[in-house]
Fold this protein.
Amino acid sequence: MNSPAINPGDGTPGPAPAGEPATRRAIDIVNASLKRRYAQERRFRLLGATAVALGLLFVAVLFLDIVAKGYTAFQQTYIHVPVYFDADTLDPTGERDPQTLANADYMGLVKKSLRQLFPEIKERRKLRELYSLVSVGAGVRLQQMVLDHPSVIGTTRDIWLLAGADVDMLIKGHIDRDAPESDRRIKDSALELVDRMIADGRIEKRFNTGFFTNGTSREPEMAGIAGAVMGSFYTLTLTLLFSFPIGVGAALYLEEFAPKNRWTDLIEVNINNLAAVPSIVFGLLGLAVFINIFGVPRSTPLVGALVLTLMTLPTIIIASRAALKSVPPSIREAALGVGASPLQTQFHHVLPLAMPGMLTGTIIGMAQALGETAPLLMIGMIAFIVDIPSGFTDAATVLPVQIFLWADSPERGFVERTSAAIIVLLGFLLLMNLAAVILRRRFERRW
Amino acid sequence: MHASTLLLILLALVALAYQVGRKRAVASAGGAAQINTLHSLPSYYGFYAALWAAVPALLLMLLWYGIQDSVVTALVKTELPPEMVEGLSPGRLSLLLSDVKNLAQGNILSGEVTPALQAAADRYSRLQQLSSYALWLFVLGLALGGMALAVRQTHPGMRARNRVESIVLGIMIVFSSIAILTTLGIVLSVLFESLLFFQKVSPLEFFFGTLWSPQTAMRADQVAADGSFGAVPLFTGTLLVSAIAMLVAVPIGLMSAIYLSEYAPRRVRSLAKPILEVLAGIPTVVYGFFAALTVAPLIRGFGESLGLTVASESALAAGLVMGIMIIPFVSSLSDDVINAVPQSMRDGSYALGATQSETVRRVIIPAALPGIVGGILLAVSRAIGETMIVVMAAGLAANLTANPLDSVTTVTVQIVTLLTGDQEFDSAKTLAAFALGLTLFLVTLTLNVIALHIVRKYREQYE
């Protein structure tokens, strides 16, 4: 690879006879080396193109892999079962007391309906197999129905019950029917039941609303992202409220007012370094300072937002300073010239012009915060929380941490849920980045 | 009695203060017609009153919430019956106190509910309640008092604008100091816990020991091992994974930067560059999932078909995926410095008859080298500090090995493992995480300082 452009010692000695002029010799040497040099040029160019192609390939593979693993989670398998809402078991007193209704044995109701569907099954082991086809969440669904409309009691309704995770995986093709029985999560006899139900049209895949409305769960078929999305929402709202004013204020001071001295130099170096500090170190800071010293409640959006604020501040400050720098000095001079005070100049004239750039930087900072996981593990946002949080000081988890937790779960059903949650997360990130791009295109001025 | 309710009421008070201050200023000037006798615009008098209502009250609220818990806990602690506290280790005592808090909040606790515990819990909730009432009283009082003070001062000659501006400037100075405070907070908190750790484990063992098994005995009479804190396997593991990542990222990143800035047609560049940068915006947890569920099985299957033994959580899988993540860092930083090389240098090289690749290799890269090296150093620091990919794909076994097919663990993985889950805060196990954090912080800080210095110096050269 070390060929110089023109190297008289390197090329072929040349067929030139002794008496030729020197200029002729040089051009010969150049001509002789041209072929090699052009080949080298082509190789180099190809190498570059390969690198770009590899990069693009990685992007494509990553997205295709996630989508291929995750798209099935947006549908869920349901089993069609006629359920008789027996007044004797649900409401023996007949008072329709919500307390009694809530505590009734709905799973028993589900099991009874299943037995009626397959009256020939009597053996206990087989019955257990039959029951396991339906999710434990099916009872919750019936309970909700009865509580919402007590009038269903005493009637028979056709209901689509949530199928168990194994049936779901089988219908979606994640369980290989041809595998030997011992390697299969779903046994031959259960497979036969499922096939009979398929033949009767009792099994159907429908849009998975539960995925968007449920909190997390130990059962893959019942797990949803609503809790994590709300947690992310609360955390990001607080992060935005903290980091935007602080970031813009700091940028304004450093860029427009600060005298050039040791102290401001130190701040500047500091901000640049903080932008490159590993995120997990901010988690350690949050644990040691916010939780252990100031007693901010663990696992809450509040403490998460405090940590994320410190993390995103450098991004916002750097972007805001760049935006302020791009406002031409003539604006400031004009404002000062008509008698505005320095602060009025900034707030009335410079800041509005720099705002699109600042907002772009803030959105990018928020996108970073939305995808951040590691520091939140340190401050307890990793806890298993079923309830959907409803405030800034409720225990919560966030979308990326939920993805991490699900990715760790051994059940096959969680793989598609994890991928689907990733698709949702990437969707949010895409929207935010799109907003940043549009903002930049539409409002940023070139002076 | 929620904090957000208090905040909302405070906000309403601040809005009121603005209105009152403004009206008062107009009135003191003698009505709207005489407004030009005021030193500042009326709204500045309003802002002045609003700031006086908001700032002291907010500061008090922050301070109060910051220390309320520790003060109440300390008060409860002094009131615990002596026979309950006698002879308890600090760890046991904190467990007892957390039981009191859990009981007060109606949560599940670790032991039985004794009358003494119940009394303490009652006392705890009473104190909390009292503190909350006092907070409301003081905060609202302070807000009203500040407002009254500001309104009393209002007269036509008051330089309201200047006062408001100096307050605002002061607030901005405080905001810009937060960066310093953050660094200070990181250094102090991590350093303090690390010093505690080094009192229990000698730094010599930590930095040069080759056995890492941080299991400490929960009780003194347990037979379990004392735990061994030799961090060398973690350092080598981190280096191994980072080295693999850099082997992927540097050639691909650098070559694509060269291709996109020197060769590619405009349209290809404007399309390929943003797509490559998408890689930088993907959350690391997604890469971790991809590494653990797609790349690792692929490598394992491939290795086994060649007759190699591959750990299911191999350093190679984590390193490869981390490399993919870092490509855009290297490429966009290199792109910047390559574009910063003046066109005249290229023209000079072409004029001498050099081909494009010769120009790139002999002129542009040497000229851009400091910047590229700086960019690579930043990428290395990114790789060393990366957490989620290795947590999900590299495993926990602290092997001292250079075999990329083996499973290794890294500094960041151990920090996460040691600090998630329940543990006492002062055990060597927990403190070890902070010692690792300190090491990580210092190493990445050094890398960053050097890299930023090189990049900045290089930029000045051509500007």
About this structure: Strands of chain B lie at 212-213, 228-229. Chain B touches chain A through 98 residues (CB under 8 Å). Chain B has two domains: 3-158, 228-462.
